[in-house]
């Protein structure tokens, strides 16, 4: 399954113009192992995922998605985040 996820993410390329995003965390194993998942709420599509649930994990996920360092104060075009 990991190979299939990586293939789709590689084919996706960089994304811009996101306005409505959802970030969720899911436990995937015992022992408090988490993954963060970024979803385009408007399209209902998973855009990126990463291990961990800390701020630096989310920043790394946003960099992988956009190719740019994304800080919370720079998200002026995001209309909703849940």
What's the structural blueprint in terms of helices and strands?
Blueprint: H1 2-12, E1 20-29, E2 33-40, E3 45-51, H2 55-66, E4 80-81
Parallel strand pairs: 1-4
Antiparallel strand pairs: 1-2, 2-3
Could you explain how this protein is built, in words?
The protein is of the alpha+beta class and 82 residues long. The protein has one domain. The protein is built from 2 helices and 4 strands. It has a 4-stranded mixed sheet with strand order 3-2-1-4, with helices on one face. A hairpin with a 3-residue loop joins strand 1 and strand 2. It is globular and about 35 Å long.
Number of strands: 4
Radius of gyration: 13 Å
Mean pLDDT: 78
Cα end-to-end separation: 27 Å
Q: Name the shape in a single word.
A: globular
Strand content: 25-35%
Specify the biggest β-sheet.
Answer: 4 strands, mixed
Strand order of the largest sheet: 3-2-1-4
> What is the succession of H and E elements?
HEEEHE
Uncertain stretches:
none
What is the number of domains?
A: 1
Secondary-structure-based class equals alpha+beta
Number of helices: 2
Defining key terms:
alpha+beta; 4-stranded mixed β-sheet
Write a short abstract of this structure.
By secondary structure, this protein is α+β, with helices and mostly antiparallel strands. Helix content is 28%, strand content 33%. The chain has helices at 2-12, 55-66, and strands at residues 20-29, 33-40, 45-51, 80-81.
């Amino acid at each position: 399954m990991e190979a299939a996820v990586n293939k789709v993410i590689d084919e996706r390329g960089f994304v811009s113009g996101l306005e409505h995003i959802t970030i969720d965390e899911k436990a995937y194993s015992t022992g408090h192992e988490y993954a963060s998942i970024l979803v385009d709420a408007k399209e209902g599509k998973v855009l990126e995922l990463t291990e961990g649930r800390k701020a630096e994990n989310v920043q790394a996920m946003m960099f992988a998605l956009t190719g740019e360092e994304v800080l919370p104060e720079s998200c002026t075009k995001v209309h909703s985040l849940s």
